[in-house]
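Quick illustration, no need to memorize.
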Amino acid sequence: MALRVMNKYLESIINTCGSVKAILYLRLLSFTESIFFPIPTDALLAPMVISGKHNWISISITATIWSVLGGIVGYYLGYYLYDVIEPYIYNLGKYEQYLIAKNYFQTYGIVFLFIAAFTPIPYKVFTISAGVLDYNIILFILISVIGRGARFFLVSIICFKYGQYMLMVINKYLLLIGTIIIILFAITLWI
């Protein structure tokens, strides 16, 4: 019974993601997720591809462009935020640590940014940090395009090729996983 309800719910989400408005929502989500929004773009991108009503390449490009644009805004927020937080860094006696962090970011920024852009690590933290640490903006944009593009194209191609199979896996295990998480959460609160 519960599995049937969950299946209908997932199907309704996928049908909704097939609408024309979904592209607008994808742009908005991709942009804001790179700055502050906690829900990853993949949460909308995957059902849009699975719906079969959008070209997976086109929406992957859309997600990449808008995510990178949001990342640039995040970068400049961090860049201008530094003027506000710099006195606090000095007053807290953390300026030397800031310089060490900046040096690490200058040395390993390509790796840090690519990992953040490609993996589930919150990209927004690194967009703002790159600005605060005055990382090279051109390199930041290039790495963001490559990392975000690779991530969104990977999600899209997997959903395009294995969409229905992925739905069966979600339908089969989502209720079980959700129940286990709720039980573990209840046990954690109990202890």
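Residues 17-162 form one domain.
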